[in-house]
Amino acid sequence: MPHANKAKAEIIPIEPDPGNAGEGNRRSANDTANVPTPGAGPVLPFQFSFLKSLLLSGTVLLALPLLSSSAWAQGPVLGTVLDARTGTALPGATILLDGTASAATDATGTFSLSAVPAGPHELRVSFLGYETLLRRLQGQATEQRLSTTLQPGAYSPAKPS
Question: In what helix (H) or strand (E) does residue 57 lie, and over which residues does it extend?
């Protein structure tokens, strides 16, 4: 049988690209950012964006009162309650803000409401034997000082039934 001219398969070794000579499988310092820490589980890209958005949302929520300070303004109201005829202090007078007992006057007739919210309010001052005083009050961020006088009330004994 005549010998056929067959092409021989030749094995040619692959040489590294001269542009990457000596690089091999080494990683650069930038490649280590995507390498997970052993035992930490897989690093998913959405975890970082979720944490960033959570941090941003928390920052915005904390800054919101600063951005709209007029809506959140609360300021103190200090005042005195005096007898309208004599000008003497009325210790123990009851101070109600919007119908809620909020303070009482001390021995010198002074009272303090530490944080009155912004907006309109009704201040009611009462003392046994005196007419109750109703006064409109506008809450604001700055301190307010009030001086009120109460008129002695007319005494009328209960009628027997």
Answer: helix 45-67
